[in-house]
Amino acid sequence: MKQTWQPKQNIVLIGFMGCGKSTVGNRLSWKYKIALEDTDKMIERQQNTTIKEIFATQGEEAFRQMETDLLEALPQKKYIRIISVGGGTPVRACNRSLLKKCGVVIYLRIQPESVYERLKGDQNRPLLQCEDPLSRIRELLAQREDAYESCADAIIDVDHLTLDQVTDRIGKIMKGKQV
Ligand code: S3P
């Protein structure tokens, strides 16, 4: 299907680990033929290592600073794109203002149980490598909820939606912002 409509502002995807930011970002990128910038992947490229390694060798604070440094450089680019950020990025207040400057911020909201189901056995999220990941997910989500919501221009509850339903909703949101 030929897609003629294109967003006129950047689409910024935020949300907890496992909510589908990268998958949705990839689908939107394909659908609208615009670039996807995934800040986790950008940091891994810059540092020439994995996030897991960064957490292990330099610690979480160093990683958080890398996220902020990257966000500071993002709004300067001229082309329209999709920006997907790590689950913890909106926790820092300065990052929330930077994200809002980047474009329309869409929060993909997810319930802890869905995160647990989706990420069971995942070994690449350092924050979830613990005895009781479900409790950790609940705890982190509760701590972050206000940060996510205060940063968002729109919220989509993704638990029971297909990938197509999520991308269609984002399309509608973006069209609504353009009129
Ligand atoms: C993190 C989420 C991860 C990654 C890092 C920390 C977090 O990204 O940035 O492991 O604090 O929630 P995803 O949300 O893409 O998994």
Q: Which runs of at least 5 residues are low in confidence (pLDDT < 50)? A: none
How many β strands by DSSP?
Answer: 5
Largest sheet: 5 strands, parallel
- Gap between N and C termini: 24 Å
Question: What would the principal axes of the Cα set say about the shape?
Answer: globular
- The CATH level-2 architecture is identified as 3-Layer(aba) Sandwich
Overall pLDDT, averaged? 95
User: What is the tally of helical segments?
Assistant: 8
Listing every helix as H and every strand as E from the N terminus to the C terminus, the arrangement reads: EHEHHHEHEHHEH
- Write the CATH fold name: Rossmann fold
Radius of gyration, Cα only, in angstroms?
16 Å
Proportion in helices: 40-55%
Can you tag this structure with a few keywords?
179 residues; alpha/beta; Rossmann fold; five-stranded parallel sheet; 5 strands; 54% helix; 12% strand; binds shikimate-3-phosphate
